[in-house]
Design a protein that fits this description.
Layout: H1 2-19, E1 23-28, E2 42-48, E3 53-55, E4 71-75, E5 79-86, H2 93-103, E6 113-119, E7 122-130, E8 135-143, H3 145-152, H4 160-167, E9 169-176, H5 178-183, H6 185-194, E10 196-197
Antiparallel strand pairs: 1-2, 2-10, 3-4, 4-5, 5-9, 6-7, 7-8, 8-9
């Protein structure tokens, strides 16, 4: 009897582990244009499903150019998720939303969804646009002013590049077939909502 109960508990635990959608993974920022060597420090973390294909930039290729993603993921080789950060300049989140809208030329203006979002020290907007061939989901995020000021006060010569990466605006963009993207919407949303800085932001004094 006891053995049967233990067996059932083990099966339950194993099934829970298999259903666990994701694990925490770290994501590095960009290399610094001031550095002679290509060095990227882990800046972010997020909950990422094991089934996603992760594609990190080559360690031998600079990604100072912000048109290049800091990382990308693929779901079933059809849904592409890209992350960009922008260490040099603050870009209003709505400017990113406007750019994404313009990329969906066949999208009627009133059919785009834009909602404010705020979590983990970031604020910005969530965008969703759907056409017959693709669904675009995007988060345009910016550290709130209090956190941005707090980080700015802790900059020195030794940590300048690292702090600049922490202060950077971030975009998360998802592009894929509408039906398949809807099937994976839950895990994509969990990933985006879990995205955060690894290091705690110092308090502003």
């Amino acid at each position: 009897m006891n053995q049967a109960i233990i067996f059932i508990i083990l099966l339950f635990c194993l099934s829970c582990d298999q259903k666990r959608p994701n694990d925490w993974q770290t994501i590095s920022g960009r290399d610094s244009p001031q550095e002679r060597l290509i060095i990227r420090h882990p800046i972010y973390r997020a909950r990422i499903p094991k089934s996603w294909k992760r594609v990190d930039p080559s360690p031998e290729t600079s990604i100072v150019d912000t048109t290049l993603p800091i990382i990308e993921f693929w779901i079933e080789d059809q849904i592409r998720i890209t992350l960009h950060n922008f260490p040099a300049d603050r870009i209003p989140p709505m400017a990113q939303i406007t750019r994404w809208k313009s990329q969906l030329k066949e999208l009627p203006p009133k059919e785009a969804l834009v909602e404010p979002v705020s979590r983990a020290g970031y604020a910005g907007f969530y965008f969703e646009g759907r056409t017959k061939e693709k669904l675009v989901m995007g988060w345009a995020l910016q550290l709130d002013h209090e956190h941005y000021r707090a980080l700015s006060k802790h900059v020195n010569e030794s940590n300048r590049g690292f702090i600049q990466q922490m202060k950077a605006d971030v975009t998360i963009k998802v592009v894929g077939p509408p039906d398949l993207s809807d099937q994976h919407r839950g895990e994509i949303t969990v990933f985006a909502n879990s995205f955060e800085l690894i290091q705690e932001i110092p308090r502003s004094s």
